[in-house]
Amino acid sequence: MDTDLRGYRIHAVVTISFTDPSSVAAFASFTVTVPLNQTLTVTKAGTGTGTVISTPSGMSCGGTCAFAFAPGTVVTLDAISASGSTLASWSGAGCSGTGSCVVTVDTAKSVTATFDLPSADLAITKTATPTIALTGQNFTYTLTATNNGPATATTVVISDPLPSGVAFVSANVDCAEASGTVTCTVASLVNGASAAFDIIVTAPSTAGTISNTATVSAASSADSVSGNNSVTLNTSVNTPPPVPGVTAWGMGALALMLGAGAIFMRRRRATAS
In the CATH scheme, what is the homologous superfamily, with its name and number, of domain 122-238? Predict the structure, then answer.
């Protein structure tokens, strides 16, 4: 019967007997040590799924698995991503990147295969109308969230803490204000879709520059590009120009003009008659 002894240390005793002319038996004992096989362990990580197979064969696992190879065996690991998933990277035992992972199993070694689902890339922009606000008067912030894909973003949230001195007036039905922060939500944004929200506010009572930063996030997955998840807009606030007044000289000039006009009309009527 054949027995698979891989992974075991073997102690063999060999006995040789012989008879010499004097009929004296002699015995010899030998110990044979077979090197232990070494274990290669593969672990999966990430939000996606997939299978790892080995060459030479022995490993084909969807979760954590291990296999004992003969010492010094060069093992090539390949990742087969499940539908919708991608291999993000290898790590451990000198492996990296997304190609094949080649490991020389001279000692026990561990490798991790990270599979990820595609993520969304949310971006946010902001404008103010008018571009220059006037003290104590209303103006509008427009916030636009865009999903650059490739995955659909769900439970998209825009958060906009209003600057000091800016008073909330109103916003879209999907927005709410609490303690000076306006929060707008949209159930989902598919790849390429956008959602815009208008927030009407009152400018501060003093002139200057107000800085407003808004952010966007989604509950569905990690954002593949974090650099476009926030936007800051600086808006100038000016004092309204004074309403022109009528001076005494102006009143006098107006009276002269009205008087001259009346004289002209009387002369015109007299000429006509």
Answer: ntegrin, alpha v. Chain A, domain 4 (2.60.40.1530)
